[in-house]
Design a protein that fits this description.
Largest sheet: 8 strands, antiparallel
Distance between the termini: 16 Å
CATH architecture of the largest domain: 5 Propeller
Structural class: mainly beta
Radius of gyration: 24 Å
Helix content: under 10%
Shape: elongated
């Protein structure tokens, strides 16, 4: 269960999707609620969570699960899938999303696509290309059946003409392509808008968009017009939600919202947020190891047709009144995965591409995950690595490893990572003078260290237990050759805050992961067998 049980029966406890679940898009279909969030370079693409009460949430599916739909080989850290938009109309689910192929350059490459299905948990269609104006497109279904894509537009010119620029263009369902010319519905030299959504309510079209970037200055704005193509006027109360002037609040970075109406006529805004460590970068920015998460606020419409937070302020709350719906908790998931299933647990993801039988097996050794060593941790193409999100500031992760390396180019173990340049890796390998040994490799923005060197393992150590304990900004590794109750620490206490948004040189938009991996830098795919993986959280 992702959303924990609230303190009171009618309270939403934020964040509801904890740990790296940004850019949320929400829909209600009957009595069911779904939230789609960004996955960036992690595969499969787009996370969809399900709820029936807005309090309890469960990870349901990831729709972009085939290479024909999504091939992220070569994309940089924090690129890939951005800001999915999930909508529903006449029995069909629509998912619009961006694949960012290049971002840390002057000219962005941001193709936008659409996939559909009539079963949200089933297979989704092959992608339909839409446009490449910018990122964060969304699909609007008008009352007359016509459909439109609203998107922000990037500007590579020096200097840029617009700080914020949004365009609207019609999409033809039958032709499966954009038609007519795009129309600018927002252009500003002052305010940057992204993540736009359009809704129709009473006599107005409402343009709902994130403002002021996705950092601690983030907020949410609303504009409206009596005509779909504008002109749109902004609400005097913008940003209608932001934490930018309140660094003491738990939910920082609040913005990038989407709206949903319950069966009973109550309105809620789903939005991204972040929970900061006290640690700061050299530039003074706070660090967010859990990345940007998803929260929910109750909202209400004013008599003059504008939207505001139901708490009467612009500040996001950690506890929010739940809708008048029956509570629907999901069964708790076990902390330990013994790899007895024929498929990987849904919380695991790989990097950039799916892992097929050349990467892993759950049947080669019963009750084990076998990983075949592939490319190094800096690779943006083929890594034999599975990992899951950090979802709390305090947790432990452990495994038991059977691995017989014969070269220093053979490595396998337990890893905490943010991207290809930032990780801490407790691994078993081989050393010419010491034989089978254990070591730690750390990478902090491509500065590499081995804080313990190479520690020889007993010759009869066929199994090695590995453990990581994270306490906010502190990471301590442990190992054992005598069983999981005989751990001893290895290496110093490491700075876990380096695995965070603002701390990383290249990637800014994801969050820290913990998982298992295996490398064979000789190219012959030496394998490692993992008996289990356990992830156990400590809650405040």
């Amino acid at each position: 269960m992702v959303g924990r049980c609230p303190q009171a029966s009618h309270t939403i406890q934020n964040p509801v999707l904890r740990g790296f679940n940004p850019d949320p898009s929400v829909i209600r279909v009957g009595d069911d609620y779904y939230i789609a969030t960004s996955t960036f370079e992690w595969f499969p693409g787009v996370q969809i969570h399900h709820s029936k009460d807005l309090v309890h949430w469960q990870l349901l599916t990831r729709p972009l699960n085939r290479v024909s739909q999504l091939d992220l080989r070569g994309v940089g850290a924090s690129q890939g899938i951005w800001a999915p938009c999930l909508t529903y109309d006449n029995g069909i689910f629509y998912l619009v999303y961006t694949v960012v192929n290049s971002f840390y350059v002057n000219m962005y490459d941001t193709p936008n696509y659409l996939v559909t299905t009539d079963d949200i948990s089933g297979e989704w269609s092959e992608p339909i290309y839409l446009n490449s104006y910018g990122f964060d497109p969304s699909l609007f279904h008008d009352d007359d059946g016509r459909k439109y894509i609203v998107s922000m537009v990037t500007d590579h010119r020096i200097p840029k003409r617009y700080r914020g620029h949004l365009v609207l263009q019609e999409y033809d369902v039958q032709e499966q392509q954009m038609i007519d010319e795009p129309v600018t519905i927002y252009a500003s030299e002052d305010i940057y808008l992204e993540g736009p959504h359009i809704y129709k309510r009473d006599d107005y079209y409402y343009l709902f968009a994130a403002d002021t970037g996705t950092g601690e200055g983030h907020g949410q704005s609303i504009l409206r017009s009596r005509e779909l193509f504008g002109p749109y006027e902004a609400y005097d109360g913008n940003s209608l939600m932001t934490a930018r002037e309140h660094p003491e609040l738990l939910l920082q970075k609040s913005g990038h919202g989407d709206l949903v109406e319950t069966q009973n006529g109550e309105w809620y805004m789903i939005h991204l947020c972040g929970r900061a460590l006290e640690n700061r970068t050299e530039k003074g920015d706070r660090k967010y190891t859990l990345g940007r998460e998803t929260a929910i606020q109750k909202v209400e419409w004013t008599e003059d047709g504008w939207l505001r937070l139901a708490n009467g302020t612009v500040l996001p709350d950690t506890q929010v009144p739940a809708p008048n719906l029956p509570l629907h908790p999901f069964p708790s998931r076990p902390a330990r995965d013994d790899f007895d299933s024929k498929t990987l647990d849904i919380h695991f993801q790989s990097l950039r591409i799916p892992l097929d039988e050349t990467f892993y097996s759950l049947t080669a050794r019963e009750g084990h995950l076998r990983l075949y060593g592939r490319e190094g941790l800096g690779s943006k193409y083929r890594q034999s690595l599975i990992a899951r999100r950090w979802q709390e500031f305090e947790f432990s992760a452990s495994t038991c490893l059977a691995f017989e390396p014969t070269s220093y180019k053979h490595l396998a173990g337990l890893i905490c990572l943010y991207d290809t340049e930032n990780y801490y890796y407790l691994h078993v390998t081989h050393h010419e003078d010491k034989g089978k040994c254990i070591s730690i490799l750390s990478a902090v923005n491509k500065v590499y260290n081995d804080p313990v060197g190479y520690v020889a393992l007993p010759e009869d150590a066929s199994l090695v237990w590995l453990r990581a304990e994270v306490d906010n900004d502190k990471l301590q590794f442990y190992y054992s050759t005598s069983g999981e109750n005989q751990y001893e620490p290895i290496g110093p206490v490491l700075d876990a805050s380096t695995l965070s948004d603002e701390a990383c040189r290249e990637g800014w938009f994801t969050g820290a992961f913990v998982g298992l991996c295996c490398q064979d830098l000789t190219g012959f795919r030496k394998h490692a067998d993992f008996d289990y993986f356990e992830y156990a959280e400590q809650h405040d």
